[in-house]
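Throughout our pipeline, every protein is held as a single compact record rather than as scattered files. The remainder of this section carries one protein's record, kept here as part of the documentation.

===
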Amino acid sequence: MVPTDESTQPSQSSPPTEPPRTAQRSGEPTVKRQLPSFLAIGVLSTLFYLGLYIVARRFVDPQVANLIALAVSAVANTAANRRFTFGITGTDGALRHQLQGAVAFVIGLALSAGVLALLDLAAPNASKVVEVAGLVVANGLATVVRFLLMKVWVFKRA
């Protein structure tokens, strides 16, 4: 039997078909899908940062320890988010992404350095536990800024 034009065309009464959900994943990722990955990477990055800070703090003052810990953890954070949160693989654009991620690093550095400077003024003999608590708050604020920058600028798909 030879198909007619009517049998090969969808009927006008049938609803249009939706693209499969996987098409959205391979295209422009949604915040709903990105956020869990970003948060998991953020928690791991924060723990890594705090560990580096605590170790460096044994040898240097708080501001230098903060700079060292934040610089190292920021590179790892950007690389992990590039791959797992935003699904970008390969080396194309990796250096550009790291340089753009440096903007988020500078914002995080300003926030954390500001917290340490305020803490030094308000409580010059504060314990390391208080320092770390202040850094956790600053890191939380920087995380919101980092996600927004990464979403709308650093890893924006053309």
